TrEMBL record:
It comes from Cytobacillus pseudoceanisediminis. This is Peroxiredoxin-like family protein. Pfam families: AhpC-TSA_2. PANTHER family: PEROXIREDOXIN-LIKE 2C (PTHR28630:SF3), PTHR28630. InterPro entries: PXL2A/B/C, Thioredoxin-like_sf.
């Protein structure tokens, strides 16, 4: 789960919901891990559900980034100072993040999907890498387009 992206969704939830959409987050983790995440970084005004087998992730075409590529991006970002907040300052949050990197699949990338009330896919964005999340402004624009 990308903490920064979830924080942006939390901050802008009223804009998303005002367009008639419900936000549901699917994480490639077990419920116990999601609960630990929520204890450290929550609450969130939307449900975060688990897909520990990653069946939905794979079925929807989400990508797993090669380990060497993700680690080199992280190292480059850390050295150049382009990656800020990767490890939180708060000790309990920091402990949780470090544990996550050792026990969770941090290589699988997410995406953003818009569905109709009938379950039809209206739009999707599959993340290619951690910094490639759909921008909230773009999601809002797409919401306006598909509702028109």
């Amino acid at each position: 789960m990308c903490r920064e992206y979830l924080a942006q969704l939390r901050e802008r939830i009223s804009e998303l919901e005002a367009r008639g959409f419900q936000v549901i987050v699917i994480a490639p983790s077990k419920g116990t891990f999601i609960n630990q995440f929520l204890e450290q970084f929550g609450p969130f005004p939307f449900p975060i559900l688990g897909d520990p087998s990653r069946e939905a992730y794979r079925g929807m075409g989400h990508k797993t980034m090669p380990k060497w590529k993700l680690l080199s991006k992280a190292a480059f970002g850390f050295i150049t100072g382009k990656v800020k907040g990767f490890v939180p300052d708060n000790e309990k949050q920091k402990e949780f993040v470090m544990k996550s990197m050792k026990t969770q699949n941090v290589y699988i990338q997410g995406g953003t999907w818009l569905f109709s009330p009938q379950g039809k896919i209206l739009w999707k964005h599959i993340d290619e890498s951690p910094e490639n999340h759909a921008k909230i402004a773009d999601v809002l624009k797409k919401m306006d387009e598909v509702k028109a």
